[in-house]
Predict the structure of 7-cyano-7-deazaguanine synthase.
Amino acid sequence: MESKKKIAISVLSGGLDSTVATATFKDTHHIHALTFNYGQKSAEMELKSAHAVCKEIGAEHTVIDLPWLAELGKSALTSDRDIPEPTAEDLDDKDVSIETAHSVWVPGRNIVFTSIANSFAESEGASIIIVGWDHEEAVTFPDNSKEFLYAFNNVIDVGSFDKIKIKAPLIDMDKESIVKLGKDVGAPLNLSYSCYKGFESHCGVCESCMRRIRAFERAEVEDKTVYSKH
C-alpha cells in the first residue's frame, strides 16, 4: 500500500524560484500552494502562472488577497513608479542592484507571506513550508537570506505548538543552478512567470526578466519564455 504523503504549504508566486522550489517536493508531499495578490502590477499574470503550475504538478491552490499591503511604502511593484531597467552589467554591480532592490521593496512582504503560510500549516497539519528564497536574491534582498531562514524557523520553533520547518531548497543557489535543478526535478519552467511589469509577454528589460534570461542562457536550457524585448 502506498504510504500517505506528508502535507506541505508552499508560498508560490508563480515565478521561477518558487516554481522550482515547489516542484522539488511534488513527489513526496501533498502540496497546498498559496499565491498572494497584494496589488502588484504583475498580479494577474502571477495568479495565472501559479494556477497553471499547480495544475501541472497536482497541487492544491489558494489565492489570498492582501490589498492593504500595496498601500504601504512606495514600491515600484505596487505604485505608479517606473520599474527599473538595469543593464546586463548592472546585474553584477552590487550598488546598482541594491538601489534597484530598494525601488521594488514591499515592506515586510516575505514576513507576512510566511506567517500566513505558517497559519495554514498549523491548521492543515503540514510538516513543512516551501519557499523560493535563494542566494542570488539574498545579495540584495535580506528576506531571501540564509540568516532570515534560520531566524524565521526559530520563531516558528518558539511560537508554534507544531513541528513545522521552512524548507528553502534554493537557499545556496544562483539562478543558473535553479534552472538546472528545475530541469532535473521536472519543474514546469515554461509555465513560470517572472516579469515585474505584468505584461502578458515578459518585458525582457526589468531586473527579474534579465536574471531569468541570463539563467537559462548560462544553464544551457531551452527558454520557452516569450519576451517583448531581448
Remarks:
- The chain has a mean pLDDT of 96.
- The CA atoms of residues 142 and 148 lie 7 Å apart.
